[in-house]
Amino acid sequence: MTPGRMFRSFAILLLSFVTVAPLMAEPFIIAHRGASGERPEQTLAAYERAIDQGADYIEPDLVLTRDGVLVARHENEISGTTDVADHPEFAARRTTKTIDGQSITGWFTEDFTLAELRTLRARERLAELRPANSRFNDLYPIPTFEEILKLVRAKEAETGRRIGLYPETKHPSYFAGIGLPHQAPLLALLSRYGYQTEADPVFIQSFEVGNLKALRAASRLRLIQLVEGEGGPADAPGTTYADMMTTQGLKQIADYADGIGPATAMVLAPEGPTGLVGRAHDAGLQVHVWTLRMENSFLPTAFQRPDDPQGRGDFAGYVRAVAGTGVDALFSDFPKQARQALNPAP
C-alpha cells in the first residue's frame, strides 16, 4: 500500500470513529424529581410515570421530618409544593428561618411529624409554566424515601429491568445542625433494600462537600458532587464552585466522589462546549448535567421558539447539543422526550 493510500485509509477510519462515537457514548437519563414535566414533582405518580417512560434513574430530593423520616420534597420549605397554607391547624407553624445563609419564610418539614405531613397533598410548583399539571393538585401525599424504594422494587418486578436511584441530600449541614443528619437513615434504608456497593444502580448527590466525604468514609455507593456556575458549597465558606472546576479542583473531588453534576451552561456555552467534560474525564470523574426542560424560559436563546403556543422550544435539538459534549448522563423533567431526542424515530 502506498503512503498516500495508507493515509487516506487512516483518515476514513478516523472519520468513521468520530461519526459513531457519540452513539456509543449515549448518556443515560435521570428523571428529575420524576416525570415532573407531566406530574407534580416528587410524587409517586411522577416517579412511576418516569419509570414507565423508560428513565434509567429517578431522582428524589430528600429532606427530613421532625421524627427523622426521609421524605421527598424539592426543599424543606413546602408552601410552594403542598396545600399546607390551606390547613388552619398548621397556621402557627409558619415561621422564618435562615437556610444556607438565606432568610426563608414558610412551613418546614422539620417542624412536622411524618403523620402530620401525611395530611397534606402535593401541588404543582411551576403552575404558570405547567398549568396542565395543576389538574393533579391535591391528589398525592408526600412520599417517604422508603415508599419510593418500594415503588422501584415493584416496577423492577413488573418490567424485568433495573431502575436506578439518584437521591440528593438537601441542605445536609443545616439538617445535621438541628440533630437530623441524612447519612444514617439514608444508608440504612439503601442497605435494607440491597444497595451497598458501587455496582448497585445508585448515585448520591449533594451541593455540599462534607456530607459527601462522610458518605465516602461510610459507604461504597457512588457519589456525585453537584456544582453551579456561581457561589460555592454552603458548608465550605471561601470555596467557590469555580475553584472546584479547575484541573486541581477536579482532582480533589476525585478523592471522594465519582463524578460531578454541573449545570448545563457549565458544559455548553453559546459559543460551544466549554471543555469541562474533558477535564472532568481526565480526572476520572463522570459528568451528569442538570436540568434539561422543554419550556422556552429554561432553554438557551438559540433553542427558544417564542412563537410556540405551548411556550416550548427546540428541546430535542438542545438535548442532542448537550449530549454532543460527551456528558455521561443528563437530568430532565421530560425523560420520555429526552430519550426520543437521543433516539429519533427513523
Automatic annotation (TrEMBL):
Q: Name one GO biological process term.
A: lipid metabolic process
Give the family per the record: Belongs to the glycerophosphoryl diester phosphodiesterase family.
InterPro entries in the record: GP_PDE_dom, PLC-like_Pdiesterase_TIM-brl
Quote the cellular component terms of the Gene Ontology held in the record.
Answer: periplasmic space
Q: What class of enzyme is it?
A: hydrolase
The lineage's top-level taxon is Bacteria
| EC numbers on record | 3.1.4.46
Organismal lineage: Bacteria, Pseudomonadati, Pseudomonadota, Alphaproteobacteria, Sphingomonadales
**What protein am I looking at?**
glycerophosphodiester phosphodiesterase
Q: Which GO terms describe its molecular function?
A: glycerophosphodiester phosphodiesterase activity
Q: Which UniProt keywords apply?
A: Glycerol metabolism, Hydrolase, Signal
Q: Tell me where in this chain the GP-PDE domain is found.
A: 27-342
Keyword Signal found: yes
The cross-references to PROSITE patterns, in alphabetical order and at most eight, read: GP_PDE
Alphabetical list of SUPFAM superfamilies matching this protein: PLC-like phosphodiesterases (SSF51695)
Reactions it catalyzes: a sn-glycero-3-phosphodiester + H2O = an alcohol + sn-glycerol 3-phosphate + H(+)
The family database entries (Pfam families) matched by this protein are listed as: GDPD (PF03009)
